[in-house]
Amino acid sequence: MSTAHVPAQPPPPTPPPQVAAPHASEATRLLCAGTYLDASYRDCVIDELYLREHRVAAPSLGYDAARVLAHALRARRVELAWAWGVLVLLALGIVAAGWWLVVLVIPGLLLTLGRRVRGAADDPPTRRRLPAFALRWFGRFLLAYLVLVTLVIGLGATGEGDTFGLVLQGLRDGLPSSLRFLLPEAGPGGVTALDAWLALATLLAMAGCVAGQQAHFTRVLRGELSPRHFPDAANDPAERVGGRPFQLLKHRIRIEQHAPLVMYHEAHPFCGAGTAHDTWVLAVELRPHPVRERRPIGNGAVLAAVRPFLEQLREVAEPAEQDGRVVRDRLRHLQIDECVFLPAEGLLHRGDAPYDQYSFNMHRTRSLEEGGEKRRHFLRIRVGGWEEELVVTVFVRVHTQGRMLMLEVAPHVLFPVRADFKDADHEAYRFADQNAFGKTVHILTRMASAPGQALAALSRRAVRGWRRMTGEFTGGQPEGPAVSIRELAAEPGGSLFQSMDVDRYLRSVQDRIAYGVKTALADAGYQTDEFAQKVVNISNGGVNIESVQDSTFAIGNHARAATRMRTTTTGGGQAPPQRGLARDGQ
Fold first, then answer.
1. Which residues pair with residue 265 across a beta bridge?
2. Which residues contact 32 (CB under 8 A, 6 or more apart)?
3. SS3 letters for 506-521?
4. In whole angstroms, what is the distance from residue 151 CA to residue 200 CA?
5. What is the pLDDT of residues 331-373, one digit of tens each?
6. Cα separation of 420 and 313, whole Å?
7. What DSSP string describes 119-176?
8. To bridge 242 with a disulfide, which of 230, 246, 546, 578 should be the other Cys (CB 3.0-4.6 Å)?
9. Cross-strand bridge partners of residue 382
């Protein structure tokens, strides 16, 4: 009995790593954490997605806006609860300790005002930085001074020549005459020792509220917003809160944000896609080939030729495929789909937007070849890197008219989430891991501004409640998105590694687009022998075409087309490697 030698079989190709769903992505988690950190950002999320009922939600690339809204509303409820607790304690303290507690609150108001004057910028202008510096340090010194005076009174100063009375008189003499009203007379008719101790007890109770709020924030970040538990949206407490109207609103947002039919605002057509990155238009004159049979060419045929070359970007390198090694290149998760942009103007109700599959297919079929202005068809290519924090989206539109082929390429980049949102985990663990003394100092430094923060929170809620009661947010005609909550939380730029990734994604995608258009022209019987092999983005919206022969090109908004029948070339164009596709004979 003989046995045949069977060579070792190559391992099966490694499937690409799983990509988290939008509701479980890292970008969504960081945005949810940001609603607890930044009150201004939280208010923008609530205004845009909850209060403005007539406004369509912006497309959400790599995140779930509905889940961010759920956490924004929860963070506001928590903030208002602690704010009411601080103000109730303050009111009770004023009743018990008298007006002296009001004086003790003044430094905290100065600290809050200083923070407001400075703003949220990392490097504010001098006109903001200097007044904020003065307000904050004056508030700190004044707080320390008043607490010392309160302790002196509480320890028995009577103002009648005793030791503590002499100390109190010395403190009073050290104040400028304009500020001596801050230092009361001790004893009968003034601030008693009981008043002083009640005032200090009230401040400590408010410090307890601050500690409770900080502990709750830490518990949320280490619990449902932790990387381990966040993907489990079903057990997220924020998702379960809210009645049927809120659940219906979340369902509508999730339909709008991921639908292939985009209802847009005329002033912000690509709202949600990020920052425009060198948008360009290439116009090519269609010249029949002298030998090949010419066939009609349309927009759909060109895009159909482009798509297979884009799909090649998902393929791994042959050595890695043969060895069965894991390849984590984000181009493996390249997403390609078709979308139709429709203006939101003209809708009677927000719910009338045609998001069903039948309506989308109808609009897609009509918009593909019509080349209209308001209804536009795009091939959308998206790459999500850095845990969906860096999103590169390229919109491609083709239009054939007047023996010309116009290629529109609109790249957009969503940069990573704000650094302070990313640092939320570190802040939570840093507070939780501090010793008792460190936690005490952390709480006391925030206790002084607690009344001011509470007043600010309740004031914002009152203003928005009034605006909602007066109908400012409701009753308007439906309109497209004007603000993207993802764009509001994006950094102005990325790191060097991220910039390199953006360039690599864009150049890879645009190279495939250029070659796909070239293939479509060749298959239709048009001259493309010396067409540029690559179209590379350059600064200021320009492009670089490496070689041209017997074709006319117009590039940019103010370019002019000229034709030369003979052009000296520097190199021939080579097709990208094909797998399962026949090479065209251009």
1. 268
2. 67, 68, 71, 225, 230, 238
3. HHHHHHHHHHHHHHHH
4. 8
5. 888 899 999 999 988 888 888 889 999 999 999 999 988 888 8
6. 34
7. -S-SS--HHHHHHHHHHHHHHHHHHHHHHHHHHHHHTT--SSSSHHHHHHHHHHHTS-
8. 246
9. 335, 393
Tokens of 113: 């005002």
d(CA 155, CA 164): 7
The token duo for 143 is 């707080």
Cβ within 8 Å of residue 107, ≥6 positions away:
139, 140, 142, 143, 146, 448
Distance between CA atoms of 454 and 84, rounded to whole angstroms? 7
**14-23, 98-107, 411-420: range with highest mean pLDDT:** 411-420
The token duo for 380 is 């959308």
Q: Measure the CA–CA gap between 450 and 206, rounded to whole angstroms.
A: 7
**What is the number of helices (H) and of strands (E) in the chain?**
18, 10
Provide DSSP, 544-583.
Answer: EE----S--EEESTT------S----SS---PPP-SS-PP
Q: Tell me how far apart the alpha carbons of residues 273 and 253 are, in angstroms, rounded to a whole number.
A: 16
Residues in the chain: 586
Instruction: Domain ranges for the chain, please list them.
Output: 22-232+420-488, 275-414+495-555
Tokens of 317: 């390198």
User: In whole angstroms, what is the distance from residue 257 CA to residue 65 CA?
Assistant: 8
In sequence order, what DSSP letters do the residues of 364-424 get, joined into one string?
Answer: HHHHHHH--SSSEEEEEEEEEETTTTEEEEEEEEEEEETTEEEEEEEEEEEPPBPHHHHTH
Residue pair 252/40 in contact by the 8 Å Cβ criterion: no
User: Residue 395 pairs with which residues in a beta bridge?
Assistant: 380, 410
Dump pLDDT digits (tens) for 396-433. Answer: 999 888 788 888 999 999 999 999 899 888 877 777 77
3-state secondary structure 521-540: HHHCCECCCCCCCCEEECHH
